[in-house]
Each structure stands twice: as structure tokens, then as C-alpha cells.
Amino acid sequence: MTQASSIAAPLAAPAKPGKLSWAWLGVTPFFLFALLFLVLPTAYLLVGSFQTPDGSFTLGNIADLFQPSILSAYWISIKISAASAFFGAVIGFFLAYAAVMGKLPRWIRPTLMTFSGVASNFAGVPLAFAFIATLGRAGLVTILLDKYLGISIYRAGFNLLSFWGLTLTYLYFQIPLMVLILAPALDGLKKEWREASSILGATTWQYWRMVGLPVLWPSLVGTTLLLFANAFGAIATAYALTGSSLNIVPILLYAQIRGDVLHNPNLGYALALGMILITGVSNGIYMVLRTRSERWLR
After folding, report:
1. What is the pTM of this model?
2. Helix-, strand-, coil-residue percentages of the chain, each rounded to 5
3. Contact criterion met (CB below 8 Å) for 167 and 83
4. Residue 57 DSSP SS3
5. Which domains does the chain have, with CATH numbers?
6. Is-contact 79 213, C-beta < 8 A?
7. What distance in Å separates the CA atoms of residue 275 and residue 124, rounded to the nearest whole number?
């Protein structure tokens, strides 16, 4: 046996069967966190959705989800989530493409990624206040446009406390999230594919139509679905921005649980269960598409 093989042999030796690795200790906080803040609350919601306030079994809460007002809330939430996911995906794709493959100065990419990491987590009351201070009726941009350009966005029909106003607000964290997720996928496009297509006489458009976009398609669709789920479950930004003026599911759920006017916690649990199902399906499809995409991008 050579010296190299004698050194490599101990390194390749498998762990002794039955011996518990200390590495499990490092992931224990994750499993504990998931159990306390994901598994148990979901199970509690599931049970509560089929109970009355006194604990009796009922299907009434599920049946109440088909009331016109609740169906309307779901539909508005789906439209806002879909609009912010679509525009966030399109704008985020071109931003990520420009930073990764656009041959821009080298400092652009780390700057964009740093900003995207911060902006993708900037939500809730601070984001709502920032948009009110910027695009509200007395916002800075609103006043500057009216004063120096004579453009009144509110007289033109814009309203921050509306469907498009909330969609625009959501884009602040949707676009950066798209950039963060899609940039590694763009990095995975092999240069050999581009060189081979050029040698075969393909144009840039032909390369993207026949090679680039088909490879990226699972990542694009999957990330768009992730953006949809991300917007569908947002409540703090929507509630701080619009209050109860916009009938979306998270605000309706908050009203049922809090009980200012409405108070039916079990109906709230059913509303939350419906949201979990919708976001769960979106995230599930995203995971499947991401797995397919990673086969090509390895």
C-alpha cells in the first residue's frame, strides 16, 4: 500500500453504525423552531377550522368560506398577489440579467445583491409608512411632481390605498426577492452552451429562445409562484397601508381573530387554512420546478 492510499484509507472509513453524530445537535434548533412555529400552529388551525367556539365538530366554518364577501376577499388577494408576482418576476429578471450577464461595472452586482437582501425583508409598517411619505397625497414625490412638472397623480386616478397602490408597494420587496433567487440560476447557464450555439450560427435571440429560456423556465415559473405565495400571506404592509378599506383575506382574517367588529375565531382558522392551502400549493410547485431546474444548472 502506498503512502497516499494509507493516508486516504482512514478518511474514507465509514462512521461506526449505531453511533449518534454530534452534528444533529446543530440542526436541533431548526427542528424545534419548525415544530413550535410551523407544525403545531398549523395543526391547531386545522383542528380549529372544524370546531365551534365550544369545541364541537362542525363543517360550518368551511361552508362559510363560500360566502360572497369571503370569496371576493380571496379573489382580490389572488389578483394582487398575481399582479405583484408577474411584474416582480419580469422586472426582477431583467435586473438580474443586467447584473449577471450585462457586462456592467463589477461593483454593480454586489451593490444590487446587497440592496436586494435588505429590500426583500423590508415590509410591514415601515414599508407602508415609506410609501405614504413618498406617494401619499402629501408625499414627497407627489408634491414634487405637482410643483415642478404640473402632474397630479391623484387627479389622474392614482390612489395608493387601492389595488394598484398595494401592488406597487408589494413590488418593493418582490423585485429584490426575484433578483436574489434568479441570479444563481443565471450563473448556472454554462458558457459552453452559448459558445456552441454561436459556432452553429445561432443568433442571440435563437440562443435564448431554444437554450437559455427553456433551461431557465422552471426557475422563472417556480420563482414567480414563490412571489405569489409571498404576497398572498402578507398582512402587516396591507393593513398598515389600507386599513380595512381593501377587502383582502389577511385583513379579513385579522378582523375575525381580533374581534373589533367581527369575532369568529374558528372562521378565522378556516380562512387561515384556505391561505395555507393556496400558499402550500404554490410553494410545492416551486420546489418541484426548482428541482427540475437544478438538474440542468449543476
Report:
1. 0.83
2. 75, 0, 25
3. yes
4. strand
5. 68-297 (1.10.3720.10)
6. no
7. 19
